Every structure is written in structure tokens, then in C-alpha cells.
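Retro notes, structure queue

What went well: the backlog is down to a handful. What didn't: a couple of records were mislabeled last round, so from now on we paste the full input next to the output in the thread. Example, using NADH-quinone oxidoreductase subunit N from Desulfofundulus luciae:
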Amino acid sequence: MNVGLSLLAPEIAMAILGLGVLILGLLVPKGSRHGLGWVTALGLLGVLGLTIAGWNNQGSLYEGIFIVDRYAIFFKVTFLTAAFLVTLGCMRYVDEMGDQSEYYSMMLFATLGMMVLASAGDFMTLYLGLELMTIAFIVLVCFRRTETRSVEAGIKYILLAGMSSAVLLYGLSLVYGVTGSVSISEVSRAVTTEPVPAMILGVAMLVAGLGFKISAVPFHMWTPDVYEGAPTPVTSFLAVGSKAASFAVLLRVFVAALPGLWAHWTMLVAILSAVTIIVGNLVAIPQTNIKRLLAYSSIAQAGYILVGLVTASEAGIKGVMFYAFLYAFATIGAFTVVTYFYSVTGSDEIKDYAGLSQRSPLMAAVMVISMLSMAGIPPLAGFVGKFYLFKTVVDNYLWLAFIGLIMSMVSVYYYLRVALVMYRDEPVDNTPISLSGPVALTLIITMVATLVLGIYPGPLSEVVNTAAHSFFFLP
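Corresponding output:
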């Protein structure tokens, strides 16, 4: 295999897998498609292994439009791990929903879009990956086409995604107009420390366009309705994969392409981070629907991750990458519980989780551990992630660290409210909930990862250090 193909091997394998699953669904009779979930999960494991095997295989293709460094590889591992866990935990749900091949193939193409985003070396590749991911998610969000809420969520998502893409494209075109290049490395050399008004407007539009993708306030309006209306596994992957991919791009654009403007945009990002943390946590408190509560929690988590972007340093990049990886396990664990609980009871209301600890001790335990990790309670993984993030801003933005600390304590209230319902209240229905093998495996993996990475984060920290260091030395 030549150098170019070896660098593109994970993307090529993912494209073949996506098309293969789609074609397999056309060949296999409708009643015999239950095995497609396992085909998808095993295929994702194969692509994950291929990606990890290329850890030392770095380089760039086509004059730098596609970059393969350890930074990109780490994010690809995060996307593929999330996709594998979501697929493993949603097989029963998808079998009940039907159209397995279309669902799994869209999941794979959304993951492919994320992988392209992580390696984007110019604005054209960036937009190509972004739209591949977004279009696949549009299909997935309204996949339950006979349900009004799902169709409504899809319409809202496509309208706001289209608007955000237009804003982002206009911002990219302004940057191109000022610098004369769409290449990230060439833009970084062309940007001066005294920007022209067109460049300032372009940067503001980039913040708005990408702010939609990460659900930052005030670009978060779509998140609660879309998260509530979409099929729960899609919500899970949207919260983890789409957010991580968007942060991968944010770092490429702002830290790699626009380092000369750092002094101009850093305060904007700090304020955006603070407002997102505050709004996400406060609005989560009165929620009675578990998916809406997790949606506002996801908004708050985006605010925490934005803290790492404020300093535009290697330590900040490490914090973003570290937290994005940890966040995947906690979020997928919580959403897997929500997915399976809905498939059994048909409810997403928090009050209906009463007595879940008696009906399914594993589901209740995973939900509590996942939520406490998101709240940043030691010794869980979320605490270590927040420590790395806030450590980067203590010297220059102490106020931001204080806001993050206070809001983390506020978040404990609404997370523990769910735990209280599960452990204190008596269940209306005492019937035990028996878990299927794939769901139980997903729950155990997410719980163990959240505990182990919180107690012993050293090896992951070293890997993230290496990946963050490679960010500043583009191959």
C-alpha cells in the first residue's frame, strides 16, 4: 500500500463498511436483518484497530488538504469508540424501529464525516466533512418518520443546520478573501496581529457557525427539542460524536489557522464559555424529561470544553481532547440506560424512573456514575477532565474557573435528583428489567471506563500529551 492510501486507510475502510451495510440490507430479507447491528459493531472495531495501528503513520496528502497527525488519530479513535458503543447499546431499539441497514449505514457515514473533519487541512475539506456528518444526522434525527416529535426534530435540525452552514461558509469566505488561501497552514502565515474589519467579521461568523454544532449559548436553541424528538441512540451519538468533531475543527481553525488573532478572540470565547456553562446548568434544573435534562447538561458540558480553547495552548488542547474522550463514556452510559428504559416502558419522564434500582441495579448504578462523572465528582473521570481544563485558565481567567466550579456544584443538584428518584421512590411496576447481552456489555464498559480513567488517568494523559504536541507540528 502506498503512503497516500495508508494514510487514508481508515476513511476508505469506513466508506466501504457504510456502503456494504447498506447493500447488505438490500440483499437480506427484511425479517432477517437483526444481525446487521453486529456486522456494524464488528466492522467499527476493525476500523478502530486500523486507526490505532496507524498511530505512528503521520503525514499530509494533496498539498496539505488532508492532515493525518496524532491529534487527528486521537479524535478518530474517540469517534469510532463512541460509534461502537452506541451501536452495541441500541440493537434492540433499532430492531423495534426497523430499517436497520439504512440506520446503521447513516451512523457509519456520520462517523466518516467526523473522521474527515478531524483531518481537514483546508476549508474545503472541512466543509465536506461537516456536511457529510450533518446530512447523515438529519436523516437519523427524523428516522422515526411516523412519529410527530421525530419529524418535527428533523425539520428544526435541517433548518438551523442550513442556517449555521451558511453563516460558517460566509465566515470562511471572508477569511479566504483577506488571506487569499483556504489552506489552514497558509492562512496562519497570512494572518497579521492587526486584523482588518472583514477578518473580525469572518471570525465572528466562524464562532456563530461552529457554535451551533457544539450547542454553545446563544446558538443552542435547537438542542433540547432535537434531543427529545430524535431516536435516543441518535441523541447519544449527536451529543458525543458531533460535539467532539466540532471541537476538533474549532481547534484547527482558531488555534492552527488564526493564532495571530488570539488576543482578539480569546475574551469572546471565554465569555461564550461562561454563558454556556451558566445557562446549560440553570435551565437543566426544572426539566422533567430525562432527554431534555441531558440536552441542557450537554450544553453545559460544551461550555466546560470551551474553557480549553481560551488559552490556545498545548495544555488547553490536551484538556479538550482528554475531556472529550472521557465525556463519551459518561454520556453514552447515561443514554444507553435511557434508550433501554424507553424500549421497555415507553417513557422518558424522570418520575417513571422511580425504583429503577430495584428493577435493574446495573442500569441505576451506571446512570448515577455517569451523571456524577459529568458533574465532576471525584474519583470519577469527569473530575480529572475538569481539573485539566480549569488548570489551563487559572492564571489569566480565574473568574472563569470560579464560574465552572460553582456551576459544577449546581449541576450536582439536578443529577442527584434523578438518583433520588431511582433509589428512594417506590416503583409503580415491580417487574424486573432484564438486560440484553449487548446492552449489559455497553453499560459495563462505560461504567468501568469512567471509574478506571478517574482513578488511574496516567496512561491516557500520556497519549493525549503526545497527540496535543503533534498539533503544533503539522506533518
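Agreed that this is the format going forward. Reviewer comment attached to the example: Strands lie at 59-61, 66-68.
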